[in-house]
Amino acid sequence: MEDDVLGLNRDVYETLTSLTDAPPPAVRTWTGETWGPDDAAATLVLTHESALRVMFLPPSDLVAGEAYIFGDVDIEGDIFAALAFGAGLDDARRHPVKALKLMRRLRKLPEAPGHEDRRPTRVGRLPSKSRDQDSARFHYETGNDFFASFLDLRMVYSSGYFLDSSESLEQAQLRKLDVACRKVQLAPGQRLLDVACEWGALAIHAALEYDVEVLGITLSPEQAEEARRRAKEAGVADRVTIRVQDYREVEGTFDAVTSIGMHEHVGSKELGAYFERLFELLGPRGILLTHGITTRQRKSKAKQTFISTYVFSDGELRPVEMSLKAAEGAGFQVRDLESLRPSYALTLRRWLANLEQNPIVESEVDAIRHRLFRLYLAGAALTFESHSGGSDVYQMVAVKPERPWTLGRSFMIAGDDS
Hints:
- The protein has helices at residues 2-18, 51-56, 61-69, 79-88, 96-108, 129-140, 144-148, 169-183, 201-210, 221-233, 268-281, 306-311, 320-329, 341-357, 364-385, and strands at 26-28, 34-35, 42-46, 73-77, 191-195, 213-218, 240-244, 254-260, 282-295, 333-339, 391-399.
- It is an alpha/beta fold and 418 residues long.
- The strands form 2 sheets. It has a 7-stranded mixed sheet. Strands 2-1-3-4 form a 4-stranded mixed sheet.
- Strand 1 and strand 2 form a beta hairpin.
- Helix 1 runs antiparallel to helix 5 and helix 4 (79-88) crosses helix 15 (364-385).
- The longest helix has 22 residues, at 364-385.
């Protein structure tokens, strides 16, 4: 009987490899038997006889991702090679006969329960402050130690700004912080609001290097506590205030606002109100920098994905022109737009390398989290590297209309030594 099941699994594997020209991974079964190229860059480990059925039925990135993070399969070696093979399977519709054969063979494998009951759920109206807070804590309160295991020393959780691929992650993130400060043209004595301040890296850098007063806000109490500790350690606790607060609740007037890694979490229905609120918080000559991921897809797909379920719950990517339109509709003049797509791809690869070198796997929960982020970081890197990929990341500078124009870019970085 076991030989029959092994034979079925091998048939499925061979059918999969016939659907794409991408180099296939090797396979090691639950019995120790191996198939595939001896020089394969990656090995797909099947931990039980139904693993391939659980992974590919029904066919979706959500189901395949769950099979990996919950241990039906494992990926040894180069995860990028394994994911490139998986991406090649999207071409299966060009081979309808082979695709139908694959489905029939998968259904012959022994049945096993999927993981629908383990999917996280969100409660509350969308959008709402309570729902936004729940979604933020789901992702960011994974533990400061976990994020420290793969981020740079300042714990910046957004794209670095690379000038050369040989640069370190530390250099690229420090440059990004400084470029952000230059783009909003900070000057001593000004007030800066940092929306979604994470662990305080930008707030601390702005206070130290530009002598400004900063209010940083986050929805994560864990982040806020660590940001306050870091501000005190850096000697700027008198100029950096960190609060657990929604941007809609902030009062006061600021010379500049930075919002990095935030606006992709603002739903389309709230995008106009988001820019309107930031406009209200800025003084007469105020300046805003937003930094966020966008999509090239002009039609939204309302389907549940691995990323939307397990990584960024309630996140919504939009074409960059929607943000431009919303900003200008709120009264802003958009004065600069810059893509950091190549830098983000490299940032994601550096994060993954750190994650694999510093695994925190002391329990089953840790193991699931490690596999989840390994898959997310690798998949995102491939998306941003792909010429046909549907995602980008932009920094946008927008100002109150009465702010005087300046010639050239105030943040020129050629030859800098960040």
